[in-house]
Design goal:
This protein is of the alpha/beta class. The chain has 2 domains: 3-141, Rossmann fold, CATH 3.40.50.620; 151-269, HUPs (Rossmann fold, 3-Layer(aba) Sandwich). The chain contains 10 helices and 10 strands. The chain has helices spanning 12-28, 42-47, 53-70, 91-102, 117-121, 125-132, 166-176, 194-204, 219-229, 242-253, and strands at 3-7, 31-38, 80-87, 106-111, 137-141, 151-155, 179-186, 210-215, 234-239, 265-269. The chain has a 10-stranded mixed β-sheet with strand order 3-2-1-4-5-10-9-6-7-8, sandwiched between helices. Helix 4 (91-102) packs across helix 6. The longest helix is centred in the N-terminal third of the chain and has 18 residues, at 53-70. The chain is elongated.
């Protein structure tokens, strides 16, 4: 992994994500592209005569460029490859297009709020980027600690396509000098995923430093406890389809999210 993209909106959450990305970049020997997607707000656009809109956009671009350049002064700023202002209305689409063109291999984004990480992700720019980006996305909670990454857990339902993320996870964990664990949540106490585990190990080898099978009705609650009890530094998930995301997360929103964590979430998707 040689290039990481960090979209910022200059909020504390996005600056936390930048610090985290720069920390990872040191470990991975990678470079960081910092981008900001700008546009005129409806309120501002409504106050400007049409013939002056283009001039205001030019001014706004220069303002953003200056703000981005100040980020080079942050700790470990030497890892910043370039800072890029991007004009666009749909932030997640602009980020995805940039990543494709620039050859970035990972997106690191901030997550605001003191409540559930997953709750805050629902409907946010970070979530939309996770669902559409061509590369994995690491969501960093505002309260996350920038510290040595020693343990990464991969939560999976053992779907065949979920194996696609394993090679990338191995690369990341090896570069970080971390350990990689596998965790699976069974809602049915009679279910025995032993055969699935053997099938995975036969195909991908003895990749994991530990495998845990949790029997709980709530997937979110089980993962919450697992992350806390095993001191997991990054939780990785593979999202194969929109309906799985909805089943795991959206359905829990109406009942209030109970996954309270400061642990970064690494999202892979098909």
């Amino acid at each position: 992994m040689k290039k990481i993209c960090v979209p910022v909106d200059f909020s504390p959450a996005s600056l936390k994500a930048l610090d985290y990305a720069l920390f990872l970049a040191e470990k991975l020997d990678a470079r960081v592209d910092v981008v900001h997607v700008y546009h005129l707000s409806l309120a501002e656009a409504g106050k400007i005569p049409p013939e002056l809109v283009e001039d205001r956009l030019v001014e706004l671009r220069e303002e953003v460029k200056q703000q981005l350049e100040t980020l080079r002064q942050r700790a470990r700023g030497a890892r910043i490859n370039q800072t890029v202002p991007l004009y666009g209305i749909f932030v997640d689409a602009e980020i995805s297009d940039y990543v494709r063109g620039a050859g970035c291999e990972l997106i690191v984004m901030g997550v605001r709020g003191q409540h559930s990480v997953l709750e805050k992700l629902v409907g946010s720019t970070t979530t939309q980027t996770m669902m559409h980006a061509p590369v994995p996305v690491l969501g960093v909670p505002e309260e996350a600690q920038t510290r040595e990454v020693k343990r990464i857990a991969y939560a999976t339902e053992f779907r065949p396509t979920a194996k696609l993320a394993v090679s990338q996870l191995k690369e990341i964990t090896q570069a970080l000098g971390a350990k990689l664990y596998l965790v699976h949540v069974c809602k049915d106490p009679k279910q025995n995923p032993g055969a699935l585990i053997k099938e995975w190990e036969k195909e991908i080898g003895s990749t994991f430093d530990g495998i845990s099978i949790l029997y709980r009705h709530s997937v979110i609650e089980a993962l919450d406890e697992y992350v806390t009890n095993h001191h997991i530094d990054i939780l990785a998930l593979f999202i194969p389809a929109r309906r799985l995301w909805e089943r795991l997360f959206h359905s829990s929103v109406s009942n209030r999210m109970i996954y309270h964590s400061a642990t970064p979430l690494l999202i892979f998707k098909e």
